[in-house]
Amino acid sequence: MKLQVQKLHPDATMPSFAYDADAGMDLYASVGITIEPGERAQVSTGVAMRIPSGYVGLIWDKSGISHKVGLKTLGGVVDSGYRGELLIGLLNTANESHVFAVGDKIAQILIQKVEHFEVEEVDELEESDRGTKGFGSTGV
After folding, report:
1. How far apart are CA 54 and CA 35, in angstroms?
2. Are 111 and 55 in contact (CB under 8 A)?
3. Is the predicted pLDDT of residue 8 greater than 80, yes or no?
4. What is the pLDDT of residues 20-67, one digit of tens each?
5. How far is Cα 42 from Cα 9, in angstroms, rounded to an integer?
6. Could you give the CA distance from residue 88 to residue 41 in angstroms, rounded to a whole number?
7. Distance in angstroms (rounded) separating the CA atoms of residues 79 and 58
8. What sections of 13-110 are H helices per DSSP?
9. From residue 40, how far is each of 15, 33, 93, 98, 99 by CA, in Å?
């Protein structure tokens, strides 16, 4: 299967897999940007893509950037009908500024199959072992 990607900016880096077995393709900044502590930023990738019908692109953190630097992705669903530039929302949860240069990895995208369900309204739901136990119900 092929994923069509259009470069919208001359400095854009094409999405790529770092390793053959990776689930996500790395996405790269097409502009330099500094994100201050507590600041949200929209970072340009300089690329658009045609995700095949029946699939979705899910934007996720790069684990190193998230764990070591404290930057988290925001939003993150790219529908198959979208043809605009991939803009990555980032939040700096750290106490220090973070500088991205052109070509730096900023996030990753996983392309996954989508299932559509028929929505059926019911008066009550079938019981389960967990029931309505929510946050912290497993002891954590």
Report:
1. 35
2. yes
3. yes
4. 999 999 999 999 999 999 999 999 999 999 999 999 999 999 999 999
5. 16
6. 8
7. 9
8. 63-64
9. 23, 12, 9, 12, 13
123, burial (CB in 10 Å: exposed 0-12, middle 13-18, buried 19+): exposed
* 4-113 placed in CATH 3.40.50.970: no
- The whole-angstrom separation of Cα 23 and Cα 17 is 8
Residue 82 has which token pair? 């979208």
Domain boundaries, the chain: 4-113
Q: What's 127's DSSP letter?
A: P
| Residue 105 β-bridge partners | 28
**Phi/psi of residue 65, each to 5°?**
-65, -40
The pTM for the full model equals 0.90
